[in-house]
Amino acid sequence: MTGPLLRIEDLHVTFSTRRGLVEAVRGVTLSLDPGEMLGLVGESGSGKSVTGFATTRLLDAAGRVTGGRILYRGQDITKIPDSDFRALHGAAMSMIFQNPRAALNPIRAVGLQIADAILSHKRLPKKEAADEALKLLRAVQIRDPEKRMTAYPHELSGGMCQRVMIAIAISCNPMLLIADEPTTGLDVTTQKVVMDLLAVIAAERGMATILITHDLGLAAQYCRRVVVMEKGRLVEEATPEKLFRHPQHGYTRRLVAASPNATSRIEDLVTDEERDQYLAVLAACQPRPAASPGTPPLLDVKKLAKRYDQGPPAVADFSMTMAAGESVGLVGESGSGKTTTSRMICRLIDPSDGEILFDGQSIGHLAARDFHRSPIRKDIQIVFQDPNESLNPRYTAFDCIAHPLLRLAGMRPGDALTRRVEECAQRVGLPLELLPRFPHQLSGGQKARVGIARAIACRPRLLVLD
Amino acid sequence: MASSTLRHTIWILRGNPLTGIAAAGVALLILIAILGPSIVPYDPIASNVSQALMPPSAAHLAGTDQLGRDTFSRLLVATRLDLAIAVSAVGISFVLGAVTGAFCGYAGGRLDRSVGRFVDVMMAFPLFVLAMAMVAALGNRVENIVFATAIINLPFYIRFARAEVNVRRDVGWVEAARASGESHVSVVLRFLLPNVLPAMAVQMSLNLGWAILNAAGLSFIGLGVKPPTPEWGIMVAEGARFISTGKWWLVAFPGLALMLAVLCFNLLGDGMRDILDPRMRT
Question: Is the minimum CB–CB distance between B175 and chain A shorter than 8 Å?
Fold first, then answer.
């Protein structure tokens, strides 16, 4: 076959919202050869996902293609009726999404869901469709495929769910796969395995892939050509080597700089202005005097255990010590009891057994129910895992940071409180103009900063980062 | 925030003008309830036998009943009583139900199980029969209608608040509030309940229509409000005697008033669900 598989010419996509029309994509032109893997990179809101959705005609009701053409094998697919487009879905192009668990039907066994996808395009006896589904599960290298056929999505890990999604996506041998942040919700090791699998499958089947991601490093690793988008426009297109060595556009340069590698320091990941701010903060910090020998450790955990009513203990025989100013990493896979341990040390839940000494003082015996009255409450603070869920939807960012100060540091609303909140916001790099905003008006990163600012507001002596 | 909520509300109303009509209807009902007795053309209780059973006319917009009382005036005056019964009944069941349900959902365990079984038992009764039994046992008074309506609504609020709080009790911001020094009780009252409130407001609006029907139903079968007090349920009950002789207006207009009131509250509830749903905020 000659010519590109997919060609997008001067695509415009507009959303009608209550603030009027918003142009999400403004004139994107790109092309994709059969079997090629193209990286489409940009930060959230750059229009990269919208481009993908427009191609597969999965834009939600408010979005419309207002200009340009999308040519699939030379045919303009923005013009054809929905009924004809349905035949293209699955067989010609398919898509995988960021949150695989949400994309699967929670009350149907995954084997049946794969079979459903096959049956929607092919007339086959049910038995053969099931065999086909099993073959696909093998192709996506799931462990114990026979057993997984009857599993429900909640019984599978995020990585396995994404494999099932890939199996569904490739079930009808599409020529084009659009992968929208396929690994964003997964942990780092699973991320690599899933991406490797995707690359192998695409190569084996000669399937062209558009990898939509905010992670320039990921795109560079797997794609031979990377397209960078900003604010709905295409700003740069090059090979990854060229992008990293000689980024042409200012935005790309920032993206490249923001892609951390083993030798990056925090100064490299921020803009010049932010860096100066950060260095000023750093200079203002006095180095902590090393703990003199003989002083008790700040935290001393002895044989900590947590058992719930049924099942094996969540945590058993956990001991550790930590000196003031020290950083300790607590590593383990999900389900290993990291979170339970951190909650016990933060005295949010009661341990079943064992002792927690903070600054030489036993705090394990205080009931978690009453710990909010303890003077030590403000010395042990925690930053939560999911920034999207860690802020009260009815509190502004300011209220969130001020809350512990009001409750624990005995501050009253007034200038002193405002100053302290602003100081905390500055320390975590949260622009002050965002303080009156509510969580749903903040990005994930901004919410995370609010969460950190809240945790450091009372100057805790022990900070748990979950 | 206030202006963005207003803008959001307008945006929703444009997509669903029925909500606006329902809100206007509810506003009109409230206005009539407040002004009712002072704007009526006739005394709703004074009888005038010479004018008995007149069909609707310019003088009597909705006709007159067997004692010559003006039906239209009685309808307007009845609005206050019917709304007051519904609002206070729903208010009581909301406050009790939301607090009980929220604590059950947050605490879980034995408290949750025992309250849950109690609610199950209550819901196993035919609720209207339960209300009848309560009014019959406690005495035929308006307070008892309010009380009975509140009790039979309670299980729904308990379940609703319990479910809404239960899904939120382990989210980060609840734990963060505890790390910031809040006790369990204040986490429930000052953090979880305010977050559940919008969803419960929708439930309340839907429930108001139901409570109006319930109160009217009790009066219709002779429990609760006694004649000659104007009340929609009694008016339907009294008028039913004359319907076989073709005096349709005695039943039709109170029935219509009931239907419109219930419809307005239900449509408003649906609209509020759209306005308050954060997923509609893009």
Answer: yes
